Amino acid sequence: MTHHTGKSSHTHRTSPPGQYSKNALGAKAAPVTIMVPRTEALYLDDATLRTLTTEVLSSQSISSLSEEQKSLAKNVPAEDSTITMRQTIFYAQGGGQPSDTGAIGPVDQDPTFEVSLVRKTPDGQFLHFGKFLDATSSFVAGQPVMQKVNDSKRNYHSRLHTAGHIVGLAMQLLMPDKKKVKANHFPREASMEYEGLLYNEHKPVIQEKVDELVRLDLPILISWLEGVAQVGDGEGAEEGRTRIASIGGLDHNPCGGTHIARTSLVGSIVIRKISRQKGISRVSYDVSPGIEA
Ligand SMILES: [Zn+2]
Fold first, then answer.
1. Which of 19, 68, 284, 291 could lock 272 by a disulfide, CB 3.0 to 4.6 Å apart?
2. Domain spans of the chain?
3. Ranges for the Threonyl/alanyl tRNA synthetase SAD domain (predicted)?
4. Ligand 1 centre and the CA of 2: distance in Å?
């Protein structure tokens, strides 16, 4: 799986410039190292959650973020804000799967904040980028809020992502020697890449195997392996344990993405084309139907 975020073992950061602890006399002391809690990513254990009540940890402007955090917000308008919360059901972009979108608001009220992009920092914090619908509204630390994930987009992304696993399993069954080098589950560019050469004549063979795996309605199983594995963010690594996704127990892939429960729920998978570049072959695919309105 490709990953879009860096890998790091940092669990804390120093406070931002200008933020100092004060001693009893009010004099400035050295910057303190503050623990920043990792966001509990609840979708890892329950991908069906679409609403959640949790607590705001921070709400700040993008301009006040560290350079490292700002670098995660490319293409987000500079005047937007970022929210961190104790828990999240929002999938953060990574592992070849796009970010969820959705909304956040006070409990039992209409949402006041529109989430356009979620990214995970190397510290394990989830930054929810977006804008307040009304410029005068805000969140304060400790405030209970309700998260709402855009359901049709999540379902579509989960189907595209799971389809990648199904193509991967089909390839493993058909050509066990072919080594997977890359995966992309973004809409319109979804593909799996393999070392070596594949040709158009492979297309109907892969299509047939993929159709069979969808028809078999195999369950997608999630499990955790304890111990640190050599995988990157977005590839299942979570605080010394690794998340494994398996189709019907037939394969085992480290994976941090969201999946549908059974292969039949993918709809149908279309192997679009097979292309080659520098000894790497790309199997491009799509799912049908596309995103629901
Ligand atoms: Zn996966």
1. 284
2. 40-149, 154-287
3. 242-284
4. 11
Q: 154-287 is classed in which CATH architecture? A: 2-Layer Sandwich (3.30)
pLDDT digits (tens, 9 = 90+) for 277-291: 999 999 999 999 998
pTM of the model: 0.85
Distance 165 CA to ligand 1 centre (A): 6
Q: How many CB atoms lie within 10 A of CB 209?
A: 19
Residue pLDDT, tens place only, 16-64: 443 344 444 444 455 555 567 899 999 999 999 999 999 999 999 999 9
pLDDT for res 240: 80
Instruction: List the Cα angle 156/158/162 in 5-degree steps.
Output: 120
Centre of ligand 1 to C-alpha 56, Å, is: 28
In angstroms, what is the span from residue 48 Cα to ligand 1's centroid?
15
Taking 50 as the pLDDT cut, the residues of the chain under it are 1-28, 233
pLDDT at 9: 37
Instruction: Yes or no: say if 286 and 272 are a contact pair by the CB < 8 Å rule.
Output: yes
CATH of domain 40-149: 2.40.30.130
Taking a C-beta distance cutoff of 8 angstroms, is the pair 151, 124 a contact?
no
Q: H or E segment at 141? A: none
CA 211 to mean position of chain CA atoms: 26
Tally the residues of the chain: 293
Distance 174 CA to ligand 1 centre (A): 20
What's the token pair of residue 81? 């804000």
pLDDT value, residue 79: 92
Residues with CB under 5 A from ligand 1 (ion): 245, 255, 257
Matching fold, domains 40-149 and 154-287: no
